[in-house]
Design a protein that fits this description.
The chain is an alpha+beta fold. Helices cover about 50% and strands about 20% of the residues. It starts with a strand and ends in a 7-residue tail after the last helix.
Length: about 500
């Protein structure tokens, strides 16, 4: 079982990393690596989460088969089988153990052929502590798939012996001297993307692996792990394709799920993790970019229709249109800069490390279902209290109801695997309330965004005022809808009782 941390860095920082005191104190080895990755024409291995490669290193060919990795933030663990073979032209399937061959059952092995290659220089250092030993590897080179090429510049910290906490200690020390970035994708994954075998896409929330009789500590860890996986999986996509705003949306969903998980610590009789404070700061820092994305893609089209129906004019002044677009673009760029800073990488490492080192309390040893019922009951009562006399709630009251609905939604989603389909009806009704209150809130935020923009000319001020008025009208038109949605939810059966 391979256990490693993998982080990316900019090529210009390689020399700085190599001068790190932790590495200069250790013996370094360097050698070139050529790897050939194999699959069928239809990428059957990739679809099963298998990577098969032949690597030429130290004048010999080494065949490696890896299964789909289990990643928690930057930490990755995956089964692998490695054996020396005669040449690099064809894989030697007879050298694989039966458990590995079982993974290839049904695949016509004769159709397996080279798909892409990687060529890079690897420098390695062995770092020891009293409890563990790790290998730090700096890989610099390229991935080739036909005529396409992609750069490799990353650090892999692999556990050789001892406890995995030492991986995080080493990574944190390296981060003090050089900017390292979250990169959950393996070289094989990046090679398949380059080969057009798969199209990168934003990663939506995955349900945590929770069972009703599972110890609460394990259930809590599963909730945090699922959120951390979603967070790290969307980082490369947002940094490389910020124009696809869904990456940022899913990033923020993951952050809220982590925040929800962190606050669940109180229900287990322990302090909220220290990393929750920088997590909240990060959530706040990313809000402007997401607010502008929502305004541009969801709110603006609707208010333009309102303007068309009332004035017959759907066009926006070019200056106003450019200002809106440029402001949204700048906000996304600022968010990219935030996620590229060492502080974000350190946050991911801190969360990952905390999942390894937590000591269970007495409350954490109860069954997950018992814990889930107590948490869901408490969140439901808070939502009911917030929604009392819903039709008469003012803007502030509806905002509190929206927050309460959102908090209940995240814990309901987290605990849903315990209850199966029983949870579906309630969560759908809860989502409808959250969405309706959220949309009304987006209209209010839209007005706030417009008010903050500089009004350098009379015409620009007029255009922004016209849009703001349409937003106010849209909010008034929908004011009655959340009441009906809340009544529907209030009549729903509580799946956890």
């Amino acid at each position: 079982m391979e256990v490693e941390l993998k982080l990316a860095l900019h090529p210009r920082h390689r020399a700085r990393l190599q001068r790190h005191p932790l590495l200069t104190a250790a013996t370094s080895e360097q050698h070139p690596l050529l790897s050939i990755y194999f699959d069928t024409e239809k990428f059957d291995l990739m679809r099963r989460g298998i990577a098969l490669r032949l690597r030429y290193v130290n004048n010999r060919w080494v065949q490696t088969l890896k299964t789909e990795s289990q990643s928690v933030g930057a930490l990755t663990s995956r089964p692998e089988w490695e054996v020396t073979v005669i040449d690099g032209k064809h894989p030697d399937f007879s050298a694989l153990p039966p458990v590995a061959l079982d993974l290839l059952a049904g695949i016509k092995l004769k159709r397996i052929a080279p798909v892409f290659t990687t060529e890079f220089q690897r420098a390695t250092w062995l770092i020891d502590s009293a409890q563990a030993q790790v290998e730090v590897a700096l890989d610099s080179g390229n991935i080739y798939a036909g005529d396409a090429c992609s750069n490799i510049c990353e650090v892999e910290i692999e556990l050789k012996s001892g406890t995995p906490e030492f991986l995080f200690d080493v990574a944190t020390r390296l981060l003090e001297h050089v900017s390292l970035h979250v990169e959950p994708r393996s070289k094989a994954e990046r090679g398949y993307i380059l080969s057009n075998a798969v199209t990168p896409a934003p990663v939506k929330a995955v349900q945590p692996m929770i069972e009703k009789k599972q110890p609460t500590k394990d259930a809590w860890n599963a909730i945090l792990q699922a959120a951390l996986v979603q967070l790290s999986a969307n980082v490369p996509g947002f940094l490389e394709n910020a124009h696809d705003t869904e990456y940022l949306h899913q990033l923020r969903v993951a952050l809220r799920r982590l925040h929800t998980g962190a606050r669940l610590a109180k229900s287990l009789g322990q302090a909220i993790p220290d990393w929750n404070r920088p997590l909240r700061a990060l959530m706040q820092a990313l809000n402007p970019a997401r607010d502008w994305d929502v305004f541009q893609q969801e709110i603006l089209p609707e208010i333009l229709l309102i303007l068309e129906s009332s004035t017959g004019n759907i066009e926006i002044d070019d200056t106003a249109s450019a200002l809106l677009q440029n402001t949204a673009t700048l906000a996304r760029q600022q968010s990219q800069e935030i996620l590229s800073k060492p502080e974000f990488t350190r946050l991911v490492l801190d969360i990952g490390r905390s999942l390894l080192s937590a000591t269970p309390t007495e409350a954490q040893q109860q069954e997950a279902k018992t814990w889930a019922k107590a948490v869901l009951d408490k969140r439901w009562q808070k939502l009911r209290k917030s929604c009392h006399g819903f039709a008469k709630l003012d803007a502030s009251g509806r905002h509190k109801a929206r927050i309460a609905a959102k908090k209940l939604r995240y814990v309901a989603d987290a605990f849903a695997p315990i209850y199966g389909k029983r949870a579906d009806h309630f969560i759908v009704a809860l989502s409808a309330l959250q969405n309706e209150l959220g949309y009304t809130n987006d209209l209010i935020i839209g007005q706030q965004l417009l008010h903050k923009l500089p009004k350098k000319t009379v015409m620009l001020g007029f255009e922004l005022g016209r849009l703001s008025g349409a937003l106010e009208f849209a909010a008034a038109q929908r004011a009655h809808l959340p009441t009906a949605v809340w009544r529907r939810l209030a009549r729903s059966k509580l799946f956890w009782r």
